[in-house]
């Protein structure tokens, strides 16, 4: 009986850890604004549509899956043109989970 109580307690603790991890999901908005993670706002603007150069894309409200794929392609080098040069230099600052969180946030921004 004591062994079963220990197992039940352990299971409850592990489930609690799972809840904690999902509660601590990455904050895409904070990552988007964080200069240490590339500082998306520096080029795309705080609103995702006030770019510093007219040729930079307005990304606010863009499809989440599309944004994530573009980030991955730029990071891997699969997308490599003149427009990706600035981003290529900063993509090492973010991992896949952070890119996903930023893509999700960008998709919720007003276009």
Automatic annotation (TrEMBL):
Residues 23-110 form the Cytochrome c domain. Keywords: Electron transport, Heme, Iron, Metal-binding, Signal, Transport. Gene3D superfamilies: Cytochrome c-like domain (1.10.760.10). Residues 1-25 form the signal peptide. The keyword Lipoprotein does not apply. The keyword Heme applies. InterPro entries: Cyt_c-like_dom, Cyt_c-like_dom_sf, Cytochrome_c_Oxidase_Subunit. GO terms for molecular function: electron transfer activity; heme binding; metal ion binding. This is Cytochrome C.
